[in-house]
Amino acid sequence: MLPFGDELLVLTHDTMVAGVHFLPEQDPADVAWKLVATNISDLAAKGAQPVGVLLSYQLTGGEERFLSGLREALAAYGAPLLGGDTVGGAGPQVVGLTALGRATHRPVPGRDGARAGDGIYLTGALGGAMVGLEALRAGADPALSLAYRRPQARLTEGIALAPHVSAMMDVSDGLLLDATRLARASGVTLSLSAAAIPLAAPEHRRAEALRWGDDYQLLFTAAPGATLPVPAARIGTVLPAAEAPLLLDGTPPDGALGYTH
After folding, report:
1. How far apart are CA 37 and CA 216, in angstroms?
2. What is the dihedral of CA 153, 156, 158, 159, to 10 degrees?
3. CATH, domain 119-248, list 3.20.20.70, 3.90.650.10, 3.40.50.150, 3.10.20.600
4. Whether CATH 3.40.50.150 fits 2-103
5. Which tens digit of pLDDT belongs to each residue from 145-166?
6. 238 CB-contact burial (10 Å; exposed 0-12 / middle 13-18 / buried 19+)
7. Cβ(230)–Cβ(160) under 8 Å?
8. Which residues touch 138 (CB under 8 Å, ≥6 apart)?
9. What is the DSSP string of 171-185?
10. For residue 220, what pLDDT is reported?
11. How distant, in Å, are the alpha carbons of 145, 196, 237 from that of 37?
């Protein structure tokens, strides 16, 4: 965050690599959409209104399709392209985007404000990107892979929630991992109920969905009795700090908690 006159600017940057964050053979228009959405999701978690973006793009061909998707995404989120850079090169394509936003509420929501007694909430279902990637790899109906190809940043929800939350972040690397990050930043323990977490995947894959990323829902905490301006599922309660920062149905979850870079 950066003070700028009477405004407070929120800045974020994400980089995506072919073969890591998207399939090398994917439609470049979808790659552009995802690049924008992931950055706008970071602004959403701060309740920030987009001001514009700067693009870093590795030329590999397919530029017309990339620009088509870029225009669509920037129009959807009201974020003009302010500038950037292009570069040639061999190897997997690397693209990056810096997004600038204007804080709409102060204090700006962070990860460090959760307090014991707060409720824990999620703006929507998890697992859609997981099953979407599988559908894309299988060549299934494009509608089945939409959640992976074109994730939706919860910008409207984030701006509306900013005055009402004690802590907020987006879920990009898996709910369990990101919840652990929020708990550590706030110095508390988050106690989640697995059955309360909404799914966009089959029930028998619940454990996977809680560890998968790319859904970009907003994870937030709010004081008891808070009136929320948007629909959200209550998935747990903030507890005083204990030995484990995260509990799932009363016990620390086993194994990997999410995607680590």
Report:
1. 9
2. 140
3. 3.90.650.10
4. no
5. 999 999 999 999 999 999 999 9
6. buried
7. yes
8. none
9. -SS-HHHHHHHHHHH
10. 98
11. 16, 26, 29
Q: Which residue has the tokens 């990101």?
A: 178
For residues 19 and 92, the answer to whether their CB atoms sit within 8 Å is: yes
**How far is 221 from 110, CA to CA, in rounded Å?**
10
Domain-wise residue ranges, the chain: 2-103, 119-248
Cα(170)–Cα(144) distance, integer angstroms: 23
Q: Is 103 exposed, middle or buried (0-12, 13-18, 19+ CB in 10 A)?
A: buried
Instruction: Summarize the confidence of residues 2-11 as an average pLDDT.
Output: 87
Rounded to the nearest 5 degrees, what angle is found at the Cα of 232, between the Cα atoms of 186 and 170? Answer: 45
Q: What does pTM read for this prediction?
A: 0.95
> Which SS3 state, helix, strand or coil, does residue 163 take?
coil
CA pair distance 259, 261, nearest whole angstrom: 7
What confidence score (pLDDT) does residue 188 get? Answer: 98
Asked if the bond preceding 107 is cis, omega within 30° of 0, the reply is yes
